[in-house]
Amino acid sequence: MKDLHRTWLTIDTDDLRHVPSNQGHPTRSNPNNKLPDISERFRAGIKGLRKWLDNHDLSVTLFVIADQCDSEEFVQMIAGLCSNFGERITIGCHGLHHRSWSAWPEDSEGFSEDLSASVSILERHFPAHFRRWFRAPAGYMASWMIPVLLEQNFIVDTSINPSWLVNRKYAKGESWKTVHSNVMKTPLIERPWKTRFTLPTCGPAQHIPGLRWNARRAWRTLAKPLQSNEIELIENPEVRLDTVYWHILDHARKNGSWVPPLKVQ
Ligand SMILES: [Zn+2]
């Protein structure tokens, strides 16, 4: 077990209305209430994702924002992926409304309610695929969120971007390092995101000029992705995992032909 090294492929389901520039963030949000429940770009992203999944046998975890399930169409889309691709699809929690909890003052009670509502929604819609795995909206978590995740029986967290570049996001006295060392003192299993030369490689880093060259290089040389019969290794702290993530919306890029720059093995 100790020598096993794998890559965990994860995809966040954020739609246009969820991005922090639109909602959920104390200083960055400028809400546009006219954004639809499901955008055309999201529909195109799902189509692109299906096409990509048809071309290989890799497993992916979708981090779903629970309030997306208010839409019957969204539930059908995700349930469709689950029935089509079976055990290759697992589902984690990306919050109830994508509120950037870590950017707001500590609110354990509110976060706890958010998690328990999310779990019951995701469990109800996707009982065979849901796992108690968490990714914080806005890409980072605060230390006060750790005991709440444990209390709500979460097993894995994947919210840490171990790069100096993101430390300015954190509250005073905190950094990705303090949060990481606080998680390591608990039974919560942390799966930080892949970096290269201490720079981010996930999510927006794949597209930002100045970061994308390094980010794409990193993804071309990843360890073998987890196979569908290896999914339980995510919960095994002895297994070394590189975690990468992108968004369903990315699959709408390049007229629906964008694919993550992975060496499909
Ligand atoms: Zn998100």
List descriptors:
265 residues; alpha/beta; TIM Barrel; seven-stranded parallel β-sheet; 7 helices; binds zinc ion
Short characterization:
The protein is built from 7 helices and 9 strands, in the order E-H-E-H-E-H-E-H-E-H-E-E-E-H-E-H. The chain is of the alpha/beta class and 265 residues long.
Low-confidence stretches: none
Largest sheet: 7 strands, parallel
Q: Can you tell me the CATH architecture?
A: Alpha-Beta Barrel
Q: By CATH's scheme, which homologous superfamily applies?
A: Glycoside hydrolase/deacetylase
User: What's the arrangement of strands in the largest beta sheet?
Assistant: 6-5-4-3-2-1-9
Mean pLDDT: 94
CATH fold type: TIM Barrel
Tell me what the structure shows:
This protein is of the alpha/beta class. The chain has one domain: Glycoside hydrolase/deacetylase (TIM Barrel, Alpha-Beta Barrel). Helices cover 29% and strands 15% of the residues. It contains seven helices and nine strands, in the order βαβαβαβαβαβββαβα. The protein has helices at residues 40-54, 72-85, 108-125, 145-151, 176-184, 212-220, 253-256; strands at residues 5-12, 60-64, 89-93, 130-134, 156-157, 189-190, 195-196, 199-200, 240-247. The strands form two sheets. It has a seven-stranded parallel sheet. Strands 7-8 form a two-stranded antiparallel sheet. Strand 2, helix 2 (72-85) and strand 3 form a beta-alpha-beta unit. Helix 3 (108-125) crosses helix 4. It is globular, with a radius of gyration of 17 Å. The model has no long low-confidence stretch (mean pLDDT 94).
